[in-house]
Amino acid sequence: xxADTGSSSAAxxxxxxxxxxxxxxxxxxDANGDxxxxxxxxxxxxxxxxxxxxxxxxxxxxxxxxxxxxxxxxYRICCxxxxxxxxxxxxxQAGIRQVELSVAEYSARVRPILxxxxxxxxxxxxxxxxxxxxxxxxxxxxxxxxxxLDAVGPR
Length: 155
Description:
By secondary structure, the protein is an all-beta fold. 0% of the residues lie in helices and 41% in strands.
């Protein structure tokens, strides 16, 4: 059979002045199902997650992505049932920086924290935006990952 058009939830709006930054969601495809689920940005319909497997997980949104409403979307390719569920959304104030690592140390002899294999956002807005250092060079993030390692977290 041909592709089914699928079905969407109504857009779920975030409270005024906030944006989503973590989403807990699930996609359930029955044993005979052939399809998938998406979590979409309600403002423009862009897929934030798209998968064709059963999953129950978290989705971290990149700092540059401003999401003020969400849509759960399920699609079938031929048969069976598919359900996409938005379980929980964590919000933050829109436009406020999200510090993910804060380092305070009491001695200059302490070796820097190694943070090269993490994704800290888009350069040059890393220091002061995602990482807060009590002393310059207390975090070594040289050569940090240029994109998120995967779209699922926190872990």
